[in-house]
Design a protein that fits this description.
With 145 residues, the chain is mainly alpha-helical. Helices cover 50% and strands 3% of the residues.
Length: 145
């Protein structure tokens, strides 16, 4: 489902993948424009992993986003209220999330989603990030059919 103003999970903020997407989801939800299909997982899944990694709560992040400001201000708030990961921690975070669904415990979920979407034959969809991009009408990052 194409959701205007919702970035790819591969986009980065402060070097971190997924955080820009999480901020977008919060903003869209607060504006009443986030599709209902996304509501059940707000603060869970990748959202939950992201806030846990930064050691802030989803509710506190949502409250900070509600106060306004650009992505850089929200990132600074996360680092001040939670923690600022080292470059090595960010690298590990990025690679873990970027490869989620590829030969791990999330693979079964990925295969089911591909099947349900009629994309079983899409060899370019190897990770959850690839699937999200496909599902939202973007070409999976770095992959060609």
């Amino acid at each position: 489902m194409n959701v205007p103003q919702l970035r790819s999970p591969s986009e980065k903020l402060g070097g971190l993948v997924y955080l820009p997407r999480l901020i977008d989801k919060v903003r869209l939800h607060q504006a009443g424009t986030l599709p209902a299909d996304y509501h059940a997982n707000l603060g869970k899944g990748f959202d939950g992993r992201c806030v846990n990694f930064l050691q802030v709560t989803y509710d506190a992040l949502a409250e900070r986003v509600q106060q306004g400001g650009d992505d850089a201000a929200i990132l600074a708030w996360c680092f001040e209220q939670g923690r600022k990961p080292s470059e090595e921690e960010i690298e590990i975070w990025n690679e873990f999330l970027r490869k989620r669904g590829w030969n791990d415990e999330a693979t079964e979920i990925l295969l089911k989603r591909k099947k349900d979407a009629g994309a079983e034959g899409r060899a370019d969809i190897q990770t959850m990030f690839d699937y999200i991009d496909f599902d939202e009408g973007r070409e999976p990052a770095g992959k060609k059919v």
